[in-house]
Amino acid sequence: MKLVRFGAAGSEKPGLLDSSGKIRDLSGVIKDITPAELTPAGLQKLAGVKASDLPVVSGTPRLGVPYTGIGKIVAIGLNYKDHAAEVGAKIPEEPVIFMKATSSISGPNDPVMLPKGSEKTDWEVELSIVIGTKAQYVDKAKAFDYVAGYTICNDVSERHYQIERGGQWTKGKSCDTFAPIGPWLVTRDEIPDPQKLKLFTEVNGERMQDGTTANQIFGVDHVIHYCSQFFTLLPGDLIITGTPAGVGLGKKPQPRFLKPGDVMKLGVEGLGEQSQTIKAWGK
Asked: What is the spatial distance between Cα 173 and Cα 140, in angstroms, rounded to a whole number?
């Protein structure tokens, strides 16, 4: 299944994408797509719904984050060999974990706002794991049992805040609108091998990132296993799994960063595409 939420911000309705790419209205079946719908029981109920029995949503409505109730965003840094190389970082021996504030969440095609004082805002396309089952001390061999599905997150990053302002990375990653998520939540059964997905980013039509999840240092199963050793993962939690080479920070001969009017387009194979226009704060 491909689950979506559509409508004005704060008033989204639940839906699903049918085989022809049309949005079908699920609001007669469920009130919203919440962590309860992402559990095995919740997904089993939705799998029994015939898309053809649901009303077609007309037009091209705004898409919101494909589910609500994200308790935490867990981010994995430096998780692609090519990305670590381009920024001159050592390959990590264990996953690098940081948190991204949930107040940064926005719809997949909503504008991204440059924060006040921004100097070096950057793009990062990321395969993202949606947790469907409470996970504690997970055996790596059983890690996929805890996955509800996958989506896309643009881990927008202000590098000046992240790298040059001291402390940890969170403040460079958590500005408002810095986590566009969606367009869809694709259930696990439709992505049999998350380590074989192409992913890309374009800025103003120029291809910047053109990678594959095969280059991840730590795969999806290891990331779930590893995170669960340190904190409980709950249904609805989102793990964003790192970005491939091609970020603005790594551009040669000099870095390239976002400015008002720039348009980002990014996608992950099987998970759709998203696009954001950059705007100055308050504009």
From this structure: 28
Return the pLDDT at 114. 97
Burial class (CB in 10 A: 0-12, 13-18, 19+), 14: buried
Q: What is the DSSP letter of 52?
A: G
79-120 pLDDT per residue, tens:
999 888 888 888 999 999 999 999 999 999 999 999 999 999
Could you tell me which of 156, 146, 102, 150 has the C-alpha nearest to residue 128? 150
SS3 label, residue 144: helix
CATH of domain 73-280: 3.90.850.10
Assess contact for 179 and 73: CB atoms under 8 A. yes
**What is the DSSP secondary-structure string of 153-220?**
EE--EEHHHHHHSSS-SHHHH-STT-EEB-S-EEEGGG-S-TTS-EEEEEETTEEEEEEEGGGBSS-H
Residue ranges of domains in the chain? 2-53, 73-280
238-240 and 105-106 beta bridge pairing: unpaired
Mean pLDDT, all residues of the chain: 96
127, 212 contact by CB (below 8 A) = no
Q: What tens digit of pLDDT does each residue of 33-87 get?
A: 999 999 999 999 999 999 999 999 999 999 999 999 999 999 999 999 988 888 8
